[in-house]
Request: fold
Amino acid sequence: QIKKMSVVNKVITEGVKWSIRIHVLDVRGLYIGDERTEIEPVLTISMGDQKRFIGAVARSNTCLFDRVVRFELHDHSQDDMDNTFARFSVYNALTQKKEELIGFADLFLALAYKEPQHELKRTWLGLLNKDDNILRGYVRIGVLVLGPGDPQPDDRIDVIQMVSEVASPVFLPPALKQQAYHLFIKIYRAKSLPQMDIFGAADADISIRFAGNPPQKSKIIKNNRNPVWNTEFRLPVLTPVLIPTILIDVDDYNKDGSNVHIATIEISWEKLLRLPDRHMSPKWFHLYGAPKGANIVKGLNLIATGKALPSAYCGSVLIETEILEALKPKLGKREHIDEPKLPETQPYVIWFDILEGSEFPLEPFSTCLVEVVCGSTSRLSEPTVFQEGKCLWYEAVPEIEEDLPLDIRDIHDLFVNVYHKEKLTGNLLRMGYLRFDPTKLKGMEEGASWYSLIPEPLSPAKKSNVGSILCSLKFAPKKVAGTFRKISQKQLSKKYELRAHIYHGRELPAENDQSLCNPYFIIRSGGTSRSTKIVPESSYPVYYQSLTLITDLPQPLTVASDIEISCWDSKYFYNLNNIKNKNNNNN
Reply:
């Protein structure tokens, strides 16, 4: 597809000048070797004896460059331009070698010149590794080529959006070998879906998106939180694929067309290819979205538009996959397939101890409760009163016993919710929550630690700091947990003065229409916090401010919680995941 193309209807004479503008938008799917590793990509563009360099902007396999470079070519005839190409080379800066080439792509300028207004817009180039002749990622570019007498267009360039589905054309190296496959996806059933209707359950359906195929949809199972589909989808796949992620959407159907997106499951195509026999046995994939209640639809819509983080478990879907080589792959669908053998499970126990709460944004004598949630099972603490800036529980919340997968990596995340009771109605309102990955818990050895709460996205107050809780979450198979449970005690502590000197920030992401943000920093330790001033409309804020905390830290200090420094935007607090540096794994 990148073969030479003649420049037509143009008389070129010796001594003329050609102008070339190249807009490098982003790179995707970069990898080195057989496994994906951390990469800091840098890019060079060479054209004849000229070269331009674009430095790294992030340590990521997928990142946004959004840079423009320009070239001028003198004394180029028509034949010269037919044979002139730009070479895009992407290197990894995170290496001890002087330079490590990830891959390169060549683009003949004649290809851009033949386009309307002589501009090739938003085009992906496959990056080929010269050592093993394997595709190592993609770079998206726009190219404008102007010859003598061509009118100058306006200097505006494409405004891009980093989205999961990319409609831009893809140019692959001619030497690259492509392989066709059939991807078989069996959707068996779902369990514990949220109640989406006031007088019903959920009207769920499944939609699969991958490899440029039209979305493949299941039938709608009405008024059922545990729907059964037993449907097999067959998708044609021609590798390499630009977006190597299979997207499986779970939606709630409404007659008026206002369907509600519950959650999306993402499955790596490359991991499926590396499985033995390219077959994945039936496995539960978990859904995360908004907490149950009257505002669940509003919460799910905020998550779908990127304005809130998933903050609750919303069910699981049982899926099986298989990949087979194919000569002429085509779409297919088969319903009423046989039920599978369910994944093996074993009983787990969860012991949650809540000790203290601090810095809650509440009026004195407000009533607070804490809830621990494992899937569809939850346990609630006794109510306690918030006074003198603290809540004191020192309570062992009733244990949870649940049958969960044998492999801890297949277990859904655990959630802890903190509520306060509304004085007029008595309703429980969630202030904030914590989210725990089971693989990062220390079994029955988990001691009490301070955790900063993530603010409730639907709260009208939209506060950045909703306090911290001192708690212990013990999680292990029942056979190793034992039967004797002793409540966690506050460890011997000592007062410390903690000083943090905040100087400046740089390259903070845009959070408003002016491509700026209103950032400030919060430092937390031992249930106390301090914040800097707000620097309005700046991505490079300057503070030179010292923050001092007097905090109780346990002895020895090796068991103390991490010091947390987070960056917030004063208007859009729910975009915490976009601007932060050091955080524990709950933020």
